[in-house]
Amino acid sequence: MTQPSTDPPILVPAGFTPENFEVVPARTFEDLRIGEIFRAPSRTLTDAHAAAFQTVSADNHPVHYDAEWARRHGHSAPVVHGLQVLAFTAPGATLFPHFIGEVFIRFLELSCTFLDEVHSGDTLYPELTITELERRGDDGVVVTAATIHNQRGELVLSGQHKYLLRRQQARTAT
Q1: How far apart are CA 46 and CA 145, in angstroms?
Q2: Long-range contacts of 55-63 (CB under 8 A, 24+ apart)
C-alpha cells in the first residue's frame, strides 16, 4: 500500500501555456529584414576560458598556453584558439533563435576569416547582420554577416552564416 503524498498540490494558473514565456514574440521567415542586427553580449576572455577550450578541443599547441613560446614566435601573448573566437558568433549567443522561434530547421554552413589575434583579457563584441533572404521552395535561407570586434574597435573576425528556416506559407499549409 502506498502512502498518501504529503507534497502540496501544484497549482497551474488558468490560461497558462509555456508559449507565453518566449523571450520575444517569434517571427517567421517573411518577417525578417535585410539589415537587421542581432548582437551577443560582450565577453571578456580569461585564461580559464582558454584552458577550458583547450581541454575540450584537445588543441595543445603551445601558442595557446606558453607565453615564452608565443613571444619567441612573434606574438605578444598566448593566442586564444580561433575556433573559440568563432564560437562567439553562435546564433544562440544572440537573440536570433528566439526571434525565429519554431521555424528554424538547421544551420547550413559558415565561413570566416580571422583578421587579428585575440588574447586573454580581450573583450569581444559579436554580431550577426542579415544580408540575404532567399526563398527556396517551402523553406527560406537566411544569410548573416558574422563579425566580432575587440575592445579597441578592431575587427578580429569576419564571416558568414547560413540557416534554413521554414517559410510561413509552408507552416500554415500543413
Answers
A1: 26
A2: 57/81, 57/83, 57/84, 59/83
Residue type (1 letter), 57: S
User: What helix, strand, coil percent values describe the chain, rounded to 5?
Assistant: 30, 30, 40
CA 9 to the chain's CA centroid: 39
pTM for the whole structure: 0.83
- At residue 35, φ and ψ (nearest 5 deg) are 100, -10
The architecture that CATH gives domain 26-173 is: Roll (3.10)
pLDDT in tens, 100-115: 888 999 999 999 999 9
CA neighbours closer than 13 Å in the CB half-sphere of residue 48: 2
Every domain of the chain and the residues it spans: 26-173
Report which of 109, 92, 101, 159 is spatially closest to residue 131, judged by C-alpha positions: 159
| 8 A C-beta contact, residue 10 and residue 71 | no
Q: Name the residue among 29, 5, 14 with its Cα closest to residue 100.
A: 29
Cα–Cα distance list, 42 to 37, 94, 110, 148, 166 (Å) = 15, 11, 21, 10, 30
Query: 159-168: per-residue pLDDT in tens?
Result: 999 999 998 7
